[in-house]
Inverse folding.
């Protein structure tokens, strides 16, 4: 009788824990970007945040969604990818608006032309992903260019996946690329900090939440017997997070350079 009573109590508790873990997986991944988003909006300065983080996450989560069609994994991971894509687009929108606003005067000085009447015409440069200029890749002046790039990548990879969906080798390779790309999430920020010899403008709270979230996620993968690619790349992601935290410690002994609003081709690759 007592055993039945204990089981009656443990059953709902297990269900609540399961729901809580699933909710943490779905929404926990986007929480680190809340303090970074607020910092950028408050300071109107996006120089310290690498927008290539958004690129990495967009590519990783699009590939993960396509991987789901070939090998059905747990639905919380699928919903996490959908919500992460929306979050990264919002981050890109804010960063683009802030960068264009800050660079407005510089563009007026740097990009000018003279017509046949010798009248000076000043206009910002028009760049799109169709230029394939590496100096300006992922550094466009309009948010719509980013959306076009993401839609193009999604369309091409979806078509290829549709053609090769029956190949188990392709599906497993797709899954590996999805989680490996996500594991490289912190590398653009790591490189950006190394270039600047500073973590100025980067939200330390974001990195701390990366570390705790990636640790929880990796344990979740292992306990729920997720595909092996997920667990291996989760561990790699934790190591990258720790390297960024080490940068925070090391660079704290150096004078922090003020983040500049000036953008030029030589520095755009780090954005």
């Amino acid at each position: 009788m007592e055993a039945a009573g204990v089981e009656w109590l443990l059953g709902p508790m297990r269900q609540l824990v399961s729901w809580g873990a699933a909710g943490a997986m779905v929404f926990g991944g986007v929480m680190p970007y809340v303090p970074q988003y607020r910092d950028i909006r408050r300071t109107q300065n996006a120089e310290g945040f690498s927008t290539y983080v958004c690129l990495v996450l967009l590519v990783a989560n699009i590939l993960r969604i396509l991987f789901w069609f070939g090998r059905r994994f747990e639905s919380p991971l699928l919903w996490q990818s959908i919500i992460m894509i929306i979050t990264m687009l919002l981050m890109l929108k804010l960063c683009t608006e802030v960068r264009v606003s800050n660079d407005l005067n510089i563009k007026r000085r740097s990009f000018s032309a003279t017509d046949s009447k010798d009248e000076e015409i000043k206009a910002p440069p028009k760049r799109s992903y169709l230029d394939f200029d590496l100096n300006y890749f992922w550094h466009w002046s309009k948010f719509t260019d980013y959306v076009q790039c993401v839609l193009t990548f999604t369309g091409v990879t979806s078509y290829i996946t549709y053609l090769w969906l029956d190949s188990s080798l392709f599906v497993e390779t797709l899954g590996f690329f999805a989680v490996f790309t996500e594991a490289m999430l912190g590398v653009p920020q790591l490189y950006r900090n190394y270039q600047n010899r500073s973590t100025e403008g980067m939200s330390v709270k974001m990195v701390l939440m990366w570390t705790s979230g990636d640790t929880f996620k990796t344990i979740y993968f292992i306990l729920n017997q997720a595909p092996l690619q997920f667990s291996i790349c989760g561990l790699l992601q934790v190591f990258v997070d720790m390297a960024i935290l080490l940068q925070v410690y090391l660079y704290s002994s150096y004078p922090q350079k003020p983040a500049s609003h000036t953008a030029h081709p030589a520095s755009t690759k780090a954005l």
User: Anything to note?
Assistant: The chain has one domain: 1-106+140-253.
